[in-house]
């Protein structure tokens, strides 16, 4: 496992404020920041705060953060991008008053999956994205609990792929996300736990 330095990445959209400390990275999101393409809402938003660096097939990226996301659509996790119309964001998002774990997979247009995890509020969440040829496997966990499979999705991995932590605050100002770590490791080799 290798810890990435915060300085290794570049922002897709500069946040309101970024502060590093011994305990990680504190990111203040701009009001209206979001990533979405067309589906159901009709708009395109590409103002997410994603700190990205290249990643290769056979690697996984892990991002840990504190799930303090109390307002509608506050979100944080992992962002993977090949280009402006092909990307994935996965992590925790506040929806209808409670946190949910899920992913938005975008291949021209976005789709969204979300499962409520109210017990994750305020705790440390780690999201892992593993790259296999043509596919991404997303897993997440809270504290040291077992990994949960969140999503298996297609994504062109023959192109240059970048990945790293992200956050968005679509509906308000003042969201501060505390990222604790950003690491790369070997990709998961199996989709299911061995029994």
TrEMBL record:
InterPro entries hit by this protein: ConA-like_dom_sf, DUF1349
Superkingdom, natural source: Bacteria
Name of the protein this chain belongs to: DUF1349 domain-containing protein
Source organism phylogeny: Bacteria, Bacillati, Actinomycetota, Actinomycetes, Micrococcales
